[in-house]
Amino acid sequence: MMNIGYHGLWGLLILAGDIWAIINILQSAVSNEKKLIWIVAVVLLPLLGLILWYFLGPRGGKA
Q: What is the pTM of this model?
């Protein structure tokens, strides 16, 4: 039986959140440069990047 533990569970939750953020960034209507900056921030700073994107990131889908 797999014993992931709390650290592994938090890691999986952060990974899922980062993937969700990247998908939403790609679907946003902002310029490609801003998309790239946000994706790099989320990938290099998984938890902090996710929090920053949630509060400051691009919103809305394509028109």
A: 0.80
pLDDT tens digits, the chain, 63 residues: what are they?
Answer: 466 677 788 889 999 999 999 999 999 999 999 999 999 999 999 999 999 999 998 776 554
* Domain contains 41: yes
- The closest of 30, 31, 51, 29 to 41, measured between CA atoms, is 51
Residue 63 lies in a domain: no
Host domain of residue 28: 5-56
Alpha carbon separation from 14 to 32, 49, 50 (Å, rounded): 24, 10, 8
Tokens read off for 61: 């889908």
Number of domains in the chain: 1
Q: Is 11 among the domain residues?
A: yes
Q: What is the DSSP letter of 30?
A: S
